[in-house]
Amino acid sequence: MNIQVRPTDQAPEGATHPGARPKLSFQAKRRGKAPTHLADFDLSGRKAALKEAGLPAFRADQLSRHFFTHLNVSPEQMSDLPAGSREKICGLLLPKLTEQSAAISADDGRTVKHLWQLFDGAQVESVLMRYPSRTTLCVSSQAGCGMACPFCATGQMGLTRNLSTGEIIDQVRRAARAARDGKLAGGPTRLTNVVFMGMGEPLANYKTVVGALHRLIDPAPEGFGLSARNVTVSTVGLVPAIKKLAQEGMPVTLAVSLHAPDDNLRDDLIPINSRWKVGELLDAAYSYFQTTGRRVSIEYALIKNMNDHAWRAQLLADELNARGRGWAHVNPIPLNPTPGSIWTASSKKDQQVFVDTLRRNGVATTIRDTRGSDIDGACGQLATAVQKKMKER
Ligand code: SAH
Fold it and tell me: Is 145 flagged in the annotation as binding?
């Protein structure tokens, strides 16, 4: 039996009329820019900014060490800077970018989700997750998102604005500090992985995200010195930007949010599929693998009776294998459901058949865990819940 639920069977959540369709947008309304920050620049840019303000360039090395190595932004703790100019230096390059507006933990304290308020009141989320052999932060790259995917809470908010490199990187500094200071159950640990799977479409904020990738990977103290393979950029499928990213010389891991192997379904499930089709997207993903040597992750949220059919698993395997062997790794994840809607998770049985079909065809497949689903772990759900509460107040 092959029941087919269509993404169009119900108006997207929050729609104003029954015939409403998700709307793509690449441009946010004009808003002020976040204050300039140390992390917006590479080391030479930091030196230039100090020089321009009449300060010695070598202070850039000291400041970088405070920020990227010691994860510190309080002037009081910067005893290697002259007391007289500390405030001026920090005011220039370390303005406060993020203010904590909520924090909740889950999974016995191994997951912590933060909601950050930015300089203009915009709010973004990040989620810190401890695993036995790694600690991962999921960061936001935009406030809201313009990609309008009907199953994604952030997609329903629309795009508020792009984050700055500093705003992305400050989420990371705070998480690295929380991990170091033992704020996760299990004691102090080191932040090892960063995934761009929070709010926003990272490749729609391309230049800023590439800047953030440099800060993550550049050796300390110019950057955090993370291993490029431990940094993942997740995209809904902006094909030209995937091609550009492959040329940046940073072998970060690419994740593609595919969610359907056929255009017929993906056209309705992922609005950007109207511009770049499944075939073009998989071609771009495969050439990313060829250029960087990094195996690509294929993200696939399993949605009951919509995209979880065995024939779709077979089609996905065929599409991947047609391009090459062993270049992609499929990560099915049970949909984080919206109660009372067509957006609900697959049954365990269908999930298993889906996974078995891929594996039988030689495709490496790992079910992604649903960390923090009890704290609205999926993308945008915390910000939405907080917004609702504020409106009710
Ligand atoms: N815009 C980027 C990154 C942010 S979303 C992208 O689309 O890849 C990170 C991942 O969470 C994506 O794979 C997205 O499709 C998925 N996602 C969004 N809402 C979800 C939900 N309700 N359940 C499960 N996964 C979801």
Answer: yes
| Binding-site residues, ligand 1, Cβ < 6 A | 147, 151-152, 197, 201, 234-236, 257, 299, 301, 333, 335-336, 378-379
Non-local CB neighbours of 282 within 8 Å, separated by 6+ positions: 256, 258, 319, 320, 323
Q: What is the mean pLDDT of residues 33-49?
A: 97
* SS3 track for 260-305: CCCHHHHHHHCHHHHCCCHHHHHHHHHHHHHHHCCCEEEEEEEECC
Rounded mean pLDDT of the chain?
Answer: 92
Using pLDDT thresholds of 50, 70 and 90, give the confidence band for residue 25: confident
Which residue CA neighbors atom 24 of ligand 1 most closely?
Answer: 335
**Structural domains of the chain, with CATH:** 38-94 (1.10.150.530), 96-392 (3.20.20.70)
Q: What is the tens place of the pLDDT at every residue in 336-357? A: 887 778 999 999 999 999 999 9
Is 0.90 surpassed by the pTM of this model? yes
Catalytic center residues: 125, 379
CA-based nearest residue to 7, from 301, 265, 312, 277: 265
